[in-house]
Amino acid sequence: MSELNNNNILSAASHFDIEGDIMHIERFGSGHINDTYRVKTAVRSYLFQRINDQIFADVAGLMENTRVVLHHLKHKLAHLGREKVEKSTLTLIPTDEGKWYYQDENDCFWRMFILLEGTKSYDIVETEAQAYAGGKAFGEFQKQLSDLDPSKLVEILPNFHNIDFRIGNLRNAIKDNVAGRVGEVQDILHYILQREEQMRTILWMGNNGDLPLRITHNDTKFNNVLLDEHDRVQCVIDLDTVMPGYVAYDFGDAIRTIINSAAEDEPDTAKIILNIPLFRAYAQGYMSEACVFLTEKEMTSLLHGVFLLPFMQAVRFLTDYLNGNTYYKIHYPTHNLVRTRAQLKLVQEMELHQEELTAILEESVQVRKTVKK
């Protein structure tokens, strides 16, 4: 995307229906996809973003998804009162023309939300209480949207969690071998292709009608949960990837990001071990909310999601490495290869602890039976 100056930003912000005159605009947050700013007026502050239309090509569809989801969430929370609702979910600000985004003369796309003051987020889960809060937040998010028809939402990133699509891309990368790297990763390819059938389980269950299509978040990192000053869940944010999917995808991606004791690109795979207490805490928090709407087969699918998401991320990293590092940002030539090995080590650790993980999930499911009695 093109570079911005203060005049560009101020001009775009002036097209939104905000309270008070703009006093100050500054960069905000640490996101890597959209350009984000804090717009301050004498009345309140707003979160202002330039949407990355290179990644989200269907901006109209993206913003319609956001509008539909937020409208539904606010309807569900209406009994709490306006002030509480505004703190518990995002609030879109329309343009002066009543639209939900603004396209400027440079074909940049902008949107605005009320900024949720007094909140915080964490990039890394450090305590069981935080893991429980994260599970509770995403479980409640799915629960609130469980009665919203998925067909009302556009698939913003087609095939995002489709393992058939990801394996297909990997096979094409192997065939083309544009960077001449296939020979050096034979051990990794053997490991991946040996497991590809079992990693299709969720897809098969969905295709067979065993899993209902739900509205899912699809980016369940812990820093997409805002907490209040007491570390209590306040709001789930970053709705760009909210679209139809299977609940196991959200559960698996959250576990992928909290259970790993090391960084996603840790070169020393011996440091990659599982933080089982965080897994237990997240599962219990998630089930405390999701238990009221999940089917038995959806609960069965959760562990498959735990294995699938790091596996699929490894496939994506490896595909990019074989293609010459054209998608992910890297800091050194073998960065994607290091990421691949780290994700596969996580899968291996999960395989070693599969019985324990299964027992913990079954234990967490008992919450469902307790709630329904």
From TrEMBL:
Q: Which residues form the Aminoglycoside phosphotransferase domain?
A: 24-271
Please give the coiled-coil regions recorded for this protein: none
Its lineage opens with: Bacteria, Pseudomonadati, Bacteroidota, Sphingobacteriia, Sphingobacteriales
Highest taxon of the lineage: Bacteria
> SUPFAM superfamilies in the record, alphabetically?
Protein kinase-like (PK-like)
- Protein name, UniProt field: Aminoglycoside phosphotransferase family protein
Task: Kindly give the InterPro entries that the UniProt entry links to this protein.
Answer: Aminoglycoside_PTrfase, Kinase-like_dom_sf, Pseudomonas-type_ThrB
